[in-house]
Amino acid sequence: MTRPALHARGLRRAFGDRIAVDDVSVRIDPGEIVCVLGPNGAGKTTTVRMCATLLTPTAGSVEVDGVDAVADPRAARRRTGLVLGGDAGFYSRASARKNLLFFADVAGVPRSERHGRVTSALEAVSLLDRADDPVRAYSRGMRQRLHLARGLLGRPRLLLLDEPTSGLDPQVAAETRTLVRALADSGAGVLLTSHHMAEVEQLADRIHVVVGGREVAHGSVAEISSASGVGSVTTFTTALGATTLAAAVDGLAGPLDVTDEAGRWRVRIPWRGAAREDLVRQWCLAAGGGVPVDLVTRPATLEESYLALVGASA
Ligand SMILES: Nc1ncnc2c1ncn2[C@@H]1O[C@H](COP(=O)(O)OP(=O)(O)OP(=O)(O)O)[C@@H](O)[C@H]1O
């Protein structure tokens, strides 16, 4: 059996009498990207910090590449690249290369390998041509990539990325996602937090949804959708007011979403079980509105499933 890059079991963390994380378990195999999703204050960063040995769990265990991270945090850290991002974290007057040479020392990279590792980390994030510029001359996106380069210096088995594309423009964010996928493909296990649903849908092999410190669902996008109870979604446009439609689909769908589009109504129905387009057509005919316009049924997006899960747990 493959040795997991990360195996966290039954993680719990209390701050005083407040429980920030309660019984969260995450396994990541080499090459996998696992995402922790949850509203503000759900416990995502606390989970990442426990996996990074920056916080000791109140209960539970963390193994990084087979090393017990609670008993031997130094050995676990040598196998982990932590990317917290943000504008801070570098010496702004020093060049990117000098910064990374310093952090390579901190990460315990052997002296003979420091220059090679720094060059390959800068190359991986496409910053080699700006390596000798001072960090203060870097844009936000370049700094974010430099954070990633710093996380790569120790050739980690596990990469922990806390909101890696937060604040980046769409093009740089897309490049960062491509880089994260490439890092996983080269054998690292990746744990990432993000509030960007399309990003999670694109990158994550598995997702853990955490609300109020507790896991409420985990699995693939399809498994999260089925756990949320929103299997599929039907949308259509009608000239009718949709007030009686809710009664027609009562018990079969979650709350309808009805928006006024210049005198016509755009309706969205999140089905709990199988989609019932037949009921929608019957209702339109019975209410005197003829056939529904632009009637489409599609699988629920991750965002729709997530909102249903978070709403149900609130
Ligand atoms: N050092 C601390 N001392 C006391 N409470 C803390 C500490 N760190 C986190 N918390 C609390 O733990 C809970 C979880 O916080 P955490 O930062 O893990 O959430 P999060 O899911 O990362 O949120 P966000 O999406 O806003 O970053 C919150 O209620 C927070 O106030």
UniProtKB/TrEMBL annotation:
Keywords: ATP-binding, Nucleotide-binding, Transport
Keyword Membrane: no
Domain ABC transporter: 6-237
InterPro entries, per database record: AAA+_ATPase (IPR003593), ABC_transporter-like_ATP-bd (IPR003439), P-loop_NTPase (IPR027417)
MF-aspect GO terms: ATP binding; ATP hydrolysis activity
Any Pfam family hit: ABC_tran
Keyword tRNA processing listed: no
Family the UniProt entry places it in: Belongs to the ABC transporter superfamily.
Protein name: ABC transporter ATP-binding protein
